[in-house]
Amino acid sequence: MFKKILIANRGEIAVRVIRTCKKLGIKTVCVYSEADAEALHVKLADEAFLLGPPKVSESYLKADKIIEIAKLSQAEAIHPGYGLLSENSKFAAQCEEAGIVFIGPSPTVIESMGSKIEARRMMEKANVPIVPGGNEPLIDGMEAVAKAKVMGFPVMIKASSGGGGIGMQVTHDEEELLKAFTSNQKRATDFFGDGAMYLEKYIADPRHIEIQVLADSAGNTVYLWERECSIQRRHQKVLEEAPSPFVDEEMRKKMGETAVTAAKQIGYKNAGTVEFLVDANKNFYFLEMNTRLQVEHPITEEITGIDLVEQQLKVAYGETLSFTQEEVKLNGHAIEVRIYAEDPVTFFPSPGKISRFSLPEGENVRNETGVEVNSLITPFYDPMIAKLIVKGKDRLSAIKELENALENYHVEGIKTNIPTLKIIVKHEAFLNGDTTTNFVEKYLPKKVKAKKN
User: Fold this and answer.
1) Contact between 415 and 342 (Cβ < 8 Å)
2) Of 33, 93, 36, nearest to 67 (Cα)?
């Protein structure tokens, strides 16, 4: 096993990776910006190196400097966490060229899945169902309109390199599509340096259900069940649970085997997630593949008993998976909520200093966080400060655990979304498993305002 690795990330995911490294006896090297000089991950790592000023472009995205630090500290591998450089194929290639193991799939695979158009082509070849639409970049808005007339409105215009909802929009007629093509192509060019756009048929009120896969260098690939991630706000997940209350045994097996087919089609290695859109009739369509560890990976760990970070390290080191598909268990039900430093009414970020941080405890409660009392929440990074994960013998008992845990979760000095999470977990639609991607728009605005009044 590796003796020392560098973690090219910050916050709770850096702390999470450090924990498994300590369990395996691996030394850790962390990097940090000037804004994170007192951060928890800096205190917990064996070594820490300053990258630069607070902006990510001047610190956490400085690939050359991170590799230089890895060489200097004699780290054998780099764990990218999620976000930042985790799905940057050039960074993964740079690691390889420097003789440092990138803990993730190959640069070629990352690049192919980074282009949604290319990913659609590859999945179609593997007979993985994709949302009806185009597999070629559109020339202009007029071509988009012509194709949409054949497909039938409403349609979704999407950026091939898009992510986080950037560069995508539902359109209902020709005029709206023409405007959306121009504005979203500009955004995609500004954000991703790639203005390639394509069309998909709009699937109304879908669910977002994803499959965790693990694959080693010997060609062994397994799926670790599904995660239901439909409760989102502005395409950012808010609450995730495993297994999905919408998926039956037959569908679970079919989705899992499809995800394995998708991973094998592209020669995938390490941990990855195949995301699907699911309609009301339980038809599922490939959405994209995330070539990294997901934020919501803990709920999969809770129901399977498998440490995904440990598996990532072992696969990257060249070990084969020590279990078969038949040996992957599904035990109980787990739910994760993301704790954001934001105003629960306006949803605006709420930077500041944390004056009280008291977390719930218990046998079925797990906390993942990168902050503590007196931590400073700055405006430079994602406002997610922690994750609360609970487990129960079934969905109802997990929900009860979550209700109790949220009541005992106390953060002072900044505002958080905890009041919103309390509303969700008690909402009749959530209790009934009616959790489509329109949940927040459908049910929350009025409720949140009512809470305020």
Assistant:
1) yes
2) 93
Tokens 């991170």 belong to: 66
Cα separation values, 366 from 176, 285, 340, 390, Å: 45, 32, 17, 6
Query: Is 9 strand, coil or helix?
Result: coil
Q: pTM score, two decimals? A: 0.93
Annotated catalytic residues are 292
Among 349, 357, 355, 344, smallest CA distance to 379 is for 349
Residue 166's DSSP bridge partners are 163
Question: Which two tokens mark 285?
Answer: 């369509």
Max intra-chain CA distance, the chain: 60
| Residue 417, both tokens | 């979304």
- Burial of 404: CB neighbours in 10 Å, binned 0-12, 13-18, 19+: middle
Q: What is the distance between the alpha carbons of residues 164 and 412, in angstroms, rounded to a whole number?
A: 29
d(CA 395, CA 335): 9
- Provide the residue-wise pLDDT of the chain in tens; the chain has 453 residues: 999 999 999 999 999 999 999 999 999 999 999 999 999 999 999 999 999 999 999 999 999 999 999 999 999 999 999 999 999 999 999 999 999 999 999 999 999 998 999 999 999 999 999 999 999 999 999 999 999 999 999 999 999 988 777 889 999 999 999 999 999 999 888 888 889 999 999 998 899 999 999 999 999 999 999 999 999 987 889 999 999 999 999 999 999 999 999 999 999 999 999 999 999 999 999 999 999 999 999 999 999 999 999 999 999 999 999 999 999 999 999 999 999 999 988 888 999 999 999 999 999 999 999 999 999 999 999 899 999 999 999 999 999 999 999 999 999 999 999 999 999 999 999 999 999 999 998 988 654 544 443
Using DSSP bridges, classify how beta strands 270-278 and 284-290 pair: parallel, antiparallel or unpaired.
Answer: antiparallel
At position 363, the amino acid (one-letter code) is E
**Which two three-digit tokens encode residue 352?**
């500041």
Q: What is the dihedral of CA 9, 13, 18, 21, to 10 degrees?
A: -100
